[in-house]
UniProtKB/TrEMBL annotation:
Residues of the NADP-dependent oxidoreductase domain: 16-258
Keyword RNA-binding listed: no
UniProt-listed InterPro entries: AKR, Aldo/ket_reductase_CS, NAD(P)_OxRdtase_dom_sf, NADP_OxRdtase_dom
Family, as annotated: Belongs to the aldo/keto reductase family.
CDD domains given in the database record: AKR_AKR5F1
The entry's keywords: NADP, Oxidoreductase
Key word NADP present: yes
Full protein name: Aldo/keto reductase
Organism: Coprobacter tertius
C-alpha cells in the first residue's frame, strides 16, 4: 500500500474507502468489511453520514489489527465550538468502538470553526487523534488556521475530479505542507464521466476501467482518494490501480477536461451556507460514553 507522509510524520494510505451516501447499516457494514478484506486500510466516514456504528462493526469484524488501519471521521456544523466538538468527538469514537482516531476533520467551514479547532488541538495533544485537518476549506481559510493556531491542518479534503481538478489549490496546499485529499473522484458520474471519450481511450490503452484511470490520475498527483462503492467487484476494481502508470500525454489529456468549477456546490454561496448549516444528523443517545 502506497502512503503519503503528513506534516506531523503520520503515514496515511493514498487510497481509501469512503462511505458517503451509504446510510443502510447492513450494506455499509458489509461494504466496509469487504473493502478491508480487499486491502483498503483507510476508511473515511463522518458523523453526518449516520453510519459510524456500521463502520465500527465492520472494523471489529475484520480482525485486522487496529494499528494497521487509518480511520477518519468528521465534525459536523451542528457540533461546532470548543465544548460541543469535544462531546461530538467522544460520541463518534464510541459509535466507531475505537480508542483513538487517525484523522479528525472539520467537515464544513461554517460555525465556530475556531473553537472546534482548539478542541481538536487539545484532543490531538492528548493523543486521542493522530492528525487533525479540514474538509471543503478554501485556501484563505486554510491560511487563517495556519497563522492563528498552534497545529497546522494536516489534510484538506476537497472535491477533486477530472472536471474540477483544483490545480491552484493543489499547489497552495503543497506549498504549505497540507495534504490534499479528494472526495467525489468520479463526480458521481456527472458530465457523463463514465462514457467520456478521452477517459475511455486512455482506459482502453491500459486495459483498465475509466474509474481506475481516474483514481490512478489522482494518485499520480499525490492526492489521497476515497472512492465509494457498495458492489464488491467495483470495490476490488477501484483498489487495483498500482500495476500501471499514466504517461505524460495521458496526464495532459486529462488536464484538458477541467471545467474549473464544482460539479456540485459552491461553498461560498450564501444559499449553500444556509442549506448545509440547517442540515442535522440524528444523535444516538443510547451510547453512554458520548451522549450529547
Amino acid at each position: 500500500m502506497e502512503k503519503v507522509e503528513l506534516n506531523n510524520g503520520v503515514k496515511m494510505p493514498i487510497i481509501g474507502f469512503g462511505v458517503y451516501q451509504v446510510p443502510d447499516a447492513e450494506e455499509c457494514e458489509r461494504s466496509v468489511y469487504e473493502a478491508i478484506q480487499t486491502g483498503y486500510r483507510l476508511i473515511d466516514t463522518a458523523a453526518v453520514y449516520e453510519n459510524e456504528e456500521a463502520v465500527g462493526r465492520a472494523i471489529k469484524r475484520s480482525g485486522v489489527p487496529r494499528e494497521e488501519l487509518f480511520i477518519t471521521t468528521k465534525l459536523w456544523i451542528q457540533d461546532a465550538g470548543y465544548e460541543n466538538a469535544q462531546k461530538a468527538f467522544q460520541a463518534s469514537l464510541s459509535r466507531l468502538q475505537l480508542d483513538y482516531l487517525d484523522l479528525y476533520l472539520i467537515h464544513q467551514p461554517y460555525g465556530d470553526i475556531y473553537g472546534s479547532w482548539r478542541a481538536m488541538e487539545k484532543l490531538y495533544q492528548d493523543g486521542l487523534i493522530k492528525a487533525i485537518g479540514v474538509s471543503n476549506f478554501d485556501d484563505d481559510r486554510i491560511m487563517d488556521l495556519i497563522i492563528h493556531n498552534k497545529v497546522k491542518p494536516a489534510v484538506n479534503q476537497v472535491e477533486t475530479h477530472p472536471f474540477f481538478q483544483q490545480t491552484e489549490t493543489e499547489k497552495f496546499l503543497k506549498d504549505n505542507d497540507v495534504q490534499m485529499e479528494s472526495w467525489g473522484p468520479f463526480a458521481e458520474g456527472r458530465n457523463h464521466l463514465f462514457s467520456n471519450e478521452t477517459l475511455k481511450t486512455i482506459a482502453s490503452k491500459y486495459g483498465k476501467s475509466i474509474a481506475q484511470v481516474v483514481l490512478r490520475w489522482l494518485v499520480q498527483r499525490n492526492i489521497v482518494v476515497i472512492p465509494k462503492s457498495v458492489h464488491k467487484e467495483r470495490i476490488v476494481e477501484n483498489f487495483d490501480i498500482f500495476d500501471f502508470k499514466l504517461d505524460n500525454e495521458d496526464m495532459k489529456n486529462i488536464e484538458k477536461l477541467d471545467m474549473g468549477k464544482s460539479a456540485f456546490l459552491d461553498h461560498r454561496d450564501p444559499e449553500t451556507v444556509k442549506r448545509l448549516s440547517n442540515m442535522k444528523y440524528k444523535i444516538n443517545t443510547s451510547i453512554k460514553s458520548g451522549t450529547m
